[in-house]
Design a protein that fits this description.
By secondary structure, this protein is an alpha+beta fold. About 15% of the residues lie in helices and about 30% in strands. It has 2 helices and 9 strands.
Length: about 170
């Protein structure tokens, strides 16, 4: 069960930093290592070791653009690269022209985060990780904020001391 805490500054969840590249159009329609069919319009990536289905925040260090992607393939197989991105993710990160960019790879909340461009999302602190939820998904946002509010209220409720020390010296 996930617990919710309100923190202003969760610890960094960066797991890798290096170069990101993207799959070319020739891979569209082919099966990925997870068995999914690669498409150019979804937010997906290849990572060497992380389990399929893991959600990652990828940030282009040069321009600050960021996306949330789902691991559905293995790779990259070129030395120095940490992730291969789908075409959609690469476009949003503005790396199509150069082909490669320096990025950070960050673990995020797996239960509530959604794939997409971070500009279109609300960032919510859950435990020691951020969840990224699309702003148009009000139901999930309301539920998360309610859980955070309930947890914060419980933390800020003080029970009166039931056995005050009334002895006189």
């Amino acid at each position: 069960m996930t617990s919710y805490t309100k923190r202003n500054n969760p610890s960094t969840n960066t797991i890798d930093e290096g170069k990101a590249s993207y799959y070319g159009f020739k891979f569209v329609g082919r099966k990925t290592a997870s068995g999914e069919i690669f498409t150019d319009y979804l937010y997906t990536c290849a990572h060497k070791t992380l389990p399929f289905g893991t959600l990652l925040k990828i940030t282009n260090i040069e321009n600050g653009e960021a996306v949330i992607v789902k691991v559905n393939d293995r790779g990259p197989f070129i030395r120095g690269r940490v992730v291969d991105l789908s075409i959609k993710a690469a476009k949003d990160l503005n790396i199509m022209q150069m082909g490669v960019a320096k990025v950070t790879v960050e673990m995020i909340d797996q239960e509530y985060s959604q794939v997409g461009n971070v500009q279109d999302m609300e960032k919510v602190v859950i435990e020691d990780r951020y969840a990224y939820v699309r702003r148009d998904n009000q139901g999930i946002l309301d539920m998360l904020y309610q859980k955070i509010f309930e947890n914060t209220s419980e933390l800020n409720t003080f029970a009166p001391d039931s056995s005050p020390n009334t002895e006189k010296m």
